[in-house]
Structures are given as structure tokens and as C-alpha cells.
């Protein structure tokens, strides 16, 4: 067993139950990518995003276009 495992490139995403979103801090500008549950409205953090490149990596991992990701503050 290895201590440093390679992360999976694909993130489990169910479009019927979740919608992709980026939560952005108004004060610091920090961005966190994740999903909003369609039933409860609760945000689930998946990864920290650093700029446009990080957002595109998140979109590739879940298989959506960057335009489909909602930004919440």
C-alpha cells in the first residue's frame, strides 16, 4: 500500500441530484468548487480552485463546460 496515491481524475457527479457551482469569497476572492444538492440546497466542497485553470480542471473532471458552473457568493 502506498502512502501517496494518485488522485482520481474523475469526480462522481449526478446531474439529476446535483448542480456544479463555485463558491467565491467576497472579501478574499478565494474560490471553492463543488456541488449544490438540488433537494436541500446544501453546498458540498470538492476542491479549492485557483483561477481559470483550476476551474477548467474541475470542469474536465466532472465533464461540463465552464459556462455551466454557477458562481455563488
H-E order:
EEEHE
Q: Largest beta sheet: what is the strand line-up? A: 3-2-1-4
Instruction: Calculate the terminal CA-CA distance, rounded to whole Å.
Output: 41 Å
Give the count of structural domains: 1
Total of helices: 1
| Strand runs, count | 4
Any low-confidence stretches, pLDDT <50, length ≥5? Answer: none
Please state the structural category: alpha+beta
Radius of gyration over all CA atoms, rounded: 13 Å
In terms of DSSP E residues, the strand content is 25-35%
What is the makeup of the main sheet? 4 strands, mixed
Shape: globular
Output mean pLDDT. 87
Helix % is: 10-25%
Your description of this structure?
The protein has about 70 residues and is an alpha+beta fold. It is globular and about 30 Å long. The protein has one domain (about 20-70). The chain has one helix at about 50-60, and strands spanning about 20-25, 30-35, 45-50, 70. Helices cover about 15% and strands about 35% of the residues. The model has no long low-confidence stretch (mean pLDDT about 85). A four-stranded mixed sheet has the order 3-2-1-4.
Amino acid at each position: 500500500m502506498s502512502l501517496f496515491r494518485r488522485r482520481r481524475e474523475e469526480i462522481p457527479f449526478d446531474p439529476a441530484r446535483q448542480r456544479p457551482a463555485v463558491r467565491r469569497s467576497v472579501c478574499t476572492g478565494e474560490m471553492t468548487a463543488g456541488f449544490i444538492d438540488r433537494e436541500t440546497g446544501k453546498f458540498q466542497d470538492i476542491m479549492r480552485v485557483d483561477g481559470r485553470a483550476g476551474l477548467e480542471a474541475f470542469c474536465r473532471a466532472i465533464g461540463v463546460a465552464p459556462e455551466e458552473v454557477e458562481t455563488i457568493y
